[in-house]
Amino acid sequence: MVVSVTNQAPYTPDVNELLANEEMLTLPDVAAKLGIAVTRVHDLLHARKILAWRNAAGIRQVPAAFFNDKDAVSKYVSGCITVLSDGGYSDAEIFAYLFSEDDSLPGRPIDALHGHLAREVIRRAQAAAF
């Protein structure tokens, strides 16, 4: 008997594993990095300019990779999150997209968003999301 795989949900990597080796910032750390109040960080999360993931202890953390070398939220990271969110991706799927290796880039989309491949990553996100 052959089992059809077309009705199965696509494999989504474990976000905890993907973020295990990432530098993660607590919300107060993000506020200090950006020079704003923690309540403004909550506004950024609500506006989906950045995303936070709860660690095993339940503490919300933001990957340091979301920020550029000037300690600001990367406009390309924020743009990619917006495109994927608008396309119906969950937070877990967005983290999986950004932090999973992609041999065609090469590397991970999150790293490419800080270089000359940023527009390509966003183009691919648009194609994947719609």
From TrEMBL:
Signal peptide: none annotated. Pfam families: Rv2175c_C (PF18367), Rv2175c_wHTH (PF21531). InterPro entries: Rv2175c_C, Rv2175c_wHTH. Residues 10-67 form the DNA-binding protein Rv2175c wHTH domain. Keywords: DNA-binding. Residues 76-129 form the Rv2175c C-terminal domain. GO terms for molecular function: DNA binding. This is DNA-binding protein. It comes from Corynebacterium lizhenjunii.
